[in-house]
């Protein structure tokens, strides 16, 4: 009968989705009441890291550094006042980066990055004897061997994960300056006067930008909903139940995952525990493995049952004569005699909260149904038969491919 049901109501869609989702094989783990857990593998973390670095570099660029000034004694010339302004990093090239799951924090490092910088220079010198001499122009700076490392901690707090920057450092190995125009002594003078200052300006600008980015990332996490409505009556509790567990180059997160009625009835007592044995996707090819406890399905089914949504009318099937008394003329002549050529429908209702069980190889359910056969005589609906289906346990085999 199932194949005639149209996926028109969210309740049906939910039931069928429940059956399509595939459980994964198990390894035992203690748990604190989460019913959905996800393991982000090394591959997933790498993907996330690359995404973050791309986002970070594109949001950092162009990065303006503060102006720098300095007076310096130059042989044969005297004391020269020099200033750099409009110092802007306009591109960053990253050579390699890696992410590592420490205990308890997440480490991210970028090494061998290069950055291109543009700036304006000017200088002036003179004495009471000579008129002031000044000049100005542009220069480019190549920053080489830029290393950045940061340590981030992920902590669950009131159902939400906080992203905390524990440590962040940056180091510049080398810079080289290319001066357009200017006097012949200028390159060496600029380099000597400003090498250290440019390096530390780049380092502190990068560190500052990264801590701003982590704050931004944290506020994105803070704005994640703790409940996601899935239909007009049910929502899923997406609260984190504990801090992400970092191990083995992977991150495991666990959310409550139970369905609750939007009207607010809490059903926590209905379920004793989360995963008795929790699953993990062992295939390294996957970026993320998600496992669902059977209580996720059962809680959803209970919400729809309590909201009186687990009933359906089937009135349109390909074989039209089955839902017309004329089709039953020879089998149940009395029906046809009493209601000639009338349409019929089937009303199916679930009579107790369905229980769904998930095991390694199959998904099973216990669903009690009442099926009523109605005749539609003009505007009247006349029940002519009722069948109670008490299913003990229906199972659907699941393949793990
Ligand atoms: C959602 O899950 C969290 C964590 O398990 C729990 O503390 C909270 O009470 C749940 N919220 C509702 C509405 O059930
Ligand atoms: C039932 O079938 C008869 C004979 O095919 C047809 O005349 C009649 O319109 C059908 N009734 C409905 C409600 O479709």
UniProtKB/TrEMBL annotation:
Q: Which residues cross the membrane?
A: none
Cite the entry's keywords alphabetically.
Glycoprotein, Signal
Q: Does the keyword Membrane apply?
A: no
Identify a single GO molecular function assigned to this protein. lipid binding
Domain spans labelled Lipid-binding serum glycoprotein N-terminal: 40-264
Asked if RNA-binding is a keyword of the record, the answer is no
Annotated signal peptide? 1-26
InterPro entries named in the record: Bactericidal_perm-incr_a/b_dom, BPI/LBP_pln, Lipid-bd_serum_glycop_C, Lipid-bd_serum_glycop_N
Q: Name one Pfam family in it.
A: LBP_BPI_CETP_C
Would you say which domain of life the source belongs to? Eukaryota
Stated family? Belongs to the BPI/LBP/Plunc superfamily. BPI/LBP (TC 1.C.40) family.
Q: What is this protein called?
A: Lipid-binding serum glycoprotein N-terminal domain-containing protein
> Which organism is this entry from?
Citrus sinensis
